[in-house]
User: Fold this.
Amino acid sequence: MNDGYVKSEVIDGIATVTFHHPKSNSLPGHVLRSMAQAIEDAGRNSDVRVIILRSDGEKAFCAGASFDELASIDSKEQGLTFFSGFALVINAIRKAPVLVIGRIHSHTVGGGVGLACAVDIAYAHESASARLSELAIGIGPFVVGPAVERKVGTGLFGLLSATPATRRSSAWCEQHGLYAEVFPTIEALDERINAHAKELVAYSPEAMADLKQVMWTGTEDWDTLLTERAAVSGRLVLSDFTRSAIAAFKAATAKR
Assistant:
């Protein structure tokens, strides 16, 4: 439990996949792979009509890649394996024959922004700022980039990528399509998500599966594309710049 977990439950046609890590819901490789597997399993379950993706805790929705794991990578092969975890989650969401709703209860960073963009519909709390932080440590949002670009467009993806220190407010995210709606309280957020999920349960599973395919038209090459992008990140994480940046971040965090 101290190194994170993924839980999944199905109630009345609604599959809820919940992830958690004690360090602001950062994502080590085993959590990424467990999340992808849970989404795949839910998609294969004929009783499931909709998937909700959420995280536990009151702090960040997701702080992105685990810096502890990034610091331990010592080869391109290990880098590829780690960053492929993000590819697995995004592709699991893409291929699920049901809609995936994201519950973004607080700020999200790096790969967490990728998750918020990969879900079909993201509902958020007003505290849910977003920041693509990867360039600041010498990597770049290569694996999650296609999901972000698909959701907000090429220009805004470039802006988010090139301003890694800037947090975009939830209002900004809603205005530009990253979030579908923003709510002032967690209670209102959960009420909307639960109501929408229950609504979707009543609809034709065949029609929703066909709709999902239409919505993701043009992404058929992502199995290959995201793996290629993971190799880029896996190479860059070995650079002196990135190693120094991660070490500085970990040192600063340890002093808090």
Q: What stands out?
A: Residues 150 and 194 are 26 Å apart (CA to CA). The first helix runs from residue 29 to 44.
